Amino acid sequence: MTDPYHGTHPRHALDEVMHAPVRFSIVATLAAADKAEFAFVRDTIEVSDSVLSRQVATLEKAGHVAVTKGYIGKRPRTWLALTPAGRTAFAAHCQALRAIAGNGG
């Protein structure tokens, strides 16, 4: 008998942390670059500083995103980047989404 809580449906491969729409948008934006400035990500995914900060903290805690702080001249800057584990998780998450869509759910 198949365990109903650990089946073979592709949804079981979805990453629960990055599945949330804002977090998925952050990861998708970062997947296209080595790193991105906080303000660029904020403007690209159209959220406030506080929303982005909270969601990045969740992704960072999960090991998906690395946060680096520094300065350009005298202005403080924050850069975001996917970790190698984050890139792997994003690829697997996207593969699961394609499998779900391709199989009709």
Automatic annotation (TrEMBL):
Coiled coil: none annotated. Residues 22-100 form the Winged helix DNA-binding domain. InterPro entries: WH-like_DNA-bd_sf, WH_DNA-bd_dom, WH_DNA-bd_sf. SUPFAM superfamilies: Winged helix' DNA-binding domain. Signal peptide: none annotated. This is Transcriptional regulator. It comes from Streptomyces caniferus.
